[in-house]
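Work Package 3 (structural annotation) set out to generate three-dimensional models for the target panel prioritized at the project kickoff. During this period the team completed the workflow that converts sequence records into discrete structure tokens, so that structures can be stored uniformly alongside our sequence database. As a representative example, we reproduce one entry of 266 residues exactly as it appears in the project archive.
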Amino acid sequence: MIDADIQADLRRRFNPDGSLLRDHQLKLLEMLKYIDEVCRQDGIPYWLSSGTLIGAMRHGGFIPWDDDVDVEMLATDFPRFKAAVERRGDPRYVVQTTENDPEFLFAFGKLRDLGSLVEESNGLDSLLKYRGCYIDIFTLAPSSSRALHRLGCKLVGTELKWRVKSPRSLRSHVLRGLLHGVLFPVLSAVSRIGAGTRMRHVMPSFFSAPRELPELLPVSEIDFEGYRFKAPADPDAYLRRIYGDYMRLPDPDKIQVHASNIRLQI
């Protein structure tokens, strides 16, 4: 954990109490507590991931300038999580997938808050049905090839831009069928060959960094914003594999806060 005085200074600079960013983080914290409750009650392993896990290890909570939350689980467990949320019928939330939001193009899901609005500055979310505050729920599957995964990243990025520009064009329709019906399943199947314990986000996803299954399971626990959440079995090894020296702070003067239009109540 970083020095308490440095942490306090970063909080004052980026997310002081009462700021929009801090209020957004607290909304996400409530959503994360809901995910934790669902997963604990139904015995579904999940863990804090990526920048959220860095925040837990380095700051004891959110990275002060961060405006999202990431969790991961095995792809084989995600259907159980989605079904558990649907069974509870909480009117605040929905699990956004390609099944209930046709313009959502990814293989993972998002827990969306139904009482807020997030408008991404790049406009690439403009066609989505659900656009509230969200937590990414990334799903992992065996994957031996970073090159194949990165190819999938580039292809879905191209598809996303085409659909926003010309959502009803024949080109967008054909590309979707080709990618999601043929190419992504084939790339995923080939990448599973010889994967062993190496895992990656299920295609299509924008993140290709590898994970190792023994570093993920069985899950451990970690403090985050005064609460206990699930973490990888070896959080340090997980983060060093992806980020290297994750405890090193970036230059605060070079930090760019995510630019989105956020309404926490609509």
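Residues 71 and 246 are 17 Å apart (CA to CA).
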